[in-house]
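Lab notebook, bench 4. Continuing the backlog of folding jobs that were queued last week. Each job is logged with the same field layout so the records can be merged later without manual cleanup. Today's entry covers MaoC-like domain-containing protein, a 321-residue chain. Filled in by technician R.K.

JOB TYPE: sequence-to-structure
TARGET: MaoC-like domain-containing protein
LENGTH: 321
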Amino acid sequence: MALSASAMASVVNAIDPAMIVSHKFPEVTFGYDERDVALYSLGVGVCSADAEDEKELQLVYQRNGQSSIKVLPTFVSSFIFKSGSGLRLDVPGLNYDPKLLLHGQHFIEIYGPIPSRANVTNKIKIAGLHDRGKAAVLELEILTCLEGSDDVLCMNRSTMYLRGAGGFSNSSQPFSYATYVANDVSNVTFPDSTPSAVYEERTQNSQALLCGLSGYLDPLHSDPTFAHAAGFSHPILPGLSTLGFAVRAVMRSFCSMEPTAVKRISCRFLHQVYPGETLVTEMWLQRQIQSRRVYYRTKVKERGRAVLSGYVLLEHTFSSL
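JOB STATUS: finished
OUTPUT FIELD FOLLOWS
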């Protein structure tokens, strides 16, 4: 959606980088249980094609002596919505139009098994701020620890594009700040070879509403009037929900749906998905000494449009092909 001159003028030069990068967020403690885990799994398509799927039932139901259900690795992406207003930040010095915010990239690192019920604490910081001319790029990092402990379960890093909020620094030496060395969600180059695996799955018409039960409460995903005003023909699926579908495709293809095999997830959001559309995920396996990296690209079958790309790092896995 193109920005009008008035929209650009209303938010340009509204960024104070010194205030933003020095901002200290309060820690946020919250709890979740197996109901939350199961609702999330259903929201990203678990058992939607086959309610008796043996490998996916373990994500929503205790059976055959299981002491607890297993947790999809992308469940931890829902933790970012436990901190205030999620990705719509209220930070001193950060003035922007929320309607012009795009969640462009996401990175997840998992440091150990994710329990199916726990009390945890989010520790939040600004991980990056960059002036891209027409847009400001803001990176938010959330470390999640068990309550009362310094043991980190996982890390989420979200990259947001604030359209119209760039131009807040000298164009000859634009402002750029980051707390980490390398950009783990950089562009992925796909090989010309045939994919190692391809997985196809249709989303449900109510998929975005199901995702809302896990905290994706932006009206863009549920309110037709709001979606139309934002330039979409219908409410769209949350990008992190599409990521959940893609990572499930990787897990079904390369680690027999074992959640603890997934150690790192990187993605770039490319285009919207409408509930009811069919997702086709192409995957290329790259073997490494102690791990396997799976590059993936997810397309909407009906429109032939790539909507998501990235990689998943797997450890101690075997292919289920």
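OBSERVATION: The longest strand covers residues 118-131.
SIGNED: R.K.
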